[in-house]
Amino acid sequence: MPDPQLYEALHNAYQLCALLFRKGVTVETLPYIQAIEPLATALPAEFDADEAAAQHYGLFEELVFPYQSIFLDPSNLIGGNVADQLQSIYQLVGFVSTESADHIATELECLAWLCNAASSTEDVHLQKAQLLMLTELQSWVLPFAVAMKRSGSTFYQALADFMLLSVSSHPLFAETDRVTQLPDPPALLDDDNTRLGDIATYMLTPVQSGIYIASRTIQQLGRQFNLPIGFGTRNLMLTNVFRQAAHYDCVDDIWEALQASVQSWRADYADYPERLSAAWLAQAAKTLTLLEKAQAEAIALEDAAE
After folding, report:
1. Are 171 and 195 in a shared domain?
2. Is the pTM here over 0.90, yes or no?
3. 140 in the same domain as 68
4. Is residue 32 part of a domain?
5. Residue 180, domain member (yes or no)
6. Are residues 83 and 167 in the same domain?
7. Per residue, what are the HEC states of 62-129?
8. Which residues are CB-neighbours of 217 under 8 A, at least 6 positions away?
């Protein structure tokens, strides 16, 4: 028989995380946050609703997009096959939501709903449904959480850890029957037609590179080496970093900075359970190999891009 208190606690944790991902810290959510020490201690000394709303918007609308498709779809676009697959799972288990299927909040809401239903029964179908959702979450929640932790927000760093702890504390977490497997990345440097824009696309596609690069990170890279990279999409800015590096004689510096960033991500991943981290550690290792080779062939790539 499930532990009713544990399932109630998990239900509340998933529901609160979902609400915070949707709305952030508000007058309504503040009392619940204050009841959870790791989150409460990360709050600013004084609550400012406008500042909290701006921080939430800046993080999830501009820096870290909270959609599974962004992390797992090779197109790096919201929706698509990833969202369709999740919608099929929701229909299968009987969960109804009008929100984006692959938004982190929707996935957590579904798991919260399942925990509530399973708190008083050992129904095998409910167990399988929970396993389905846990499997989906474990496939991408770690890089999403690490990207949040790199945002610089003390509160959302704490929320990332609280979410990871809540997901990995589920009694069925260790029983998920599908170990995350990421596809082999494209062999870009073996293709004579590869351009710098292709390398940028690869680096900005988490399911291929194993990491998440926010627009702020690209801007910081440009400032670090005094490169005029302009504005626009992340792909355009990172492509400009590569191109400008050749003109400003810092190609090696850029490749080494990217390698250091990937190493930093791998160090962050290594702090978490293997079930969450193994696939992403392996993918990031492949990216390191690519970057080392790219450094050796940087001039040829620049010539091809002109």
Report:
1. no
2. yes
3. yes
4. yes
5. no
6. yes
7. HHCCCEHHHHHCCCCCCCHHHHHHHHHHHHHHCCCCCCCCCEHHHHHHHHHHHHHHHCCCCCHHHHHH
8. 150, 261
Q: What is the pLDDT along the chain (306 residues), one digit of tens a residue?
A: 567 889 999 999 999 999 999 999 999 999 999 999 999 999 998 999 999 999 999 999 999 999 999 999 998 888 899 999 999 999 999 999 999 999 999 999 999 999 988 776 677 888 899 999 999 999 999 999 999 999 889 999 999 999 999 999 999 998 876 667 888 888 888 888 888 889 999 999 999 999 999 999 999 999 999 999 888 899 999 999 998 998 888 989 999 999 999 999 999 999 999 999 999 999 999 999 999 988 887 655 555 444
Boundaries of domain holding 147: 4-175
Residue 213 in domain: yes
Indicate whether 167 and 200 sit together in one domain.
Answer: no
Domain identity same for 31 and 153: yes
Shared domain for 23 and 164, answered yes or no, is: yes
**Whether residues 37 and 82 fall in one domain:** yes
Helix (H, G, I), strand (E, B) or coil at 215: helix
Rounded CA separation 94/136 (Å): 16
Q: Locate all alpha helices (DSSP H) within the chain, ordered by sequence.
A: 4-23, 30-34, 37-40, 49-57, 68-72, 80-93, 104-118, 124-138, 141-149, 154-168, 196-203, 206-209, 215-224, 234-247, 251-269, 274-296, 298-305
Give the three-state DSSP class for 22.
helix
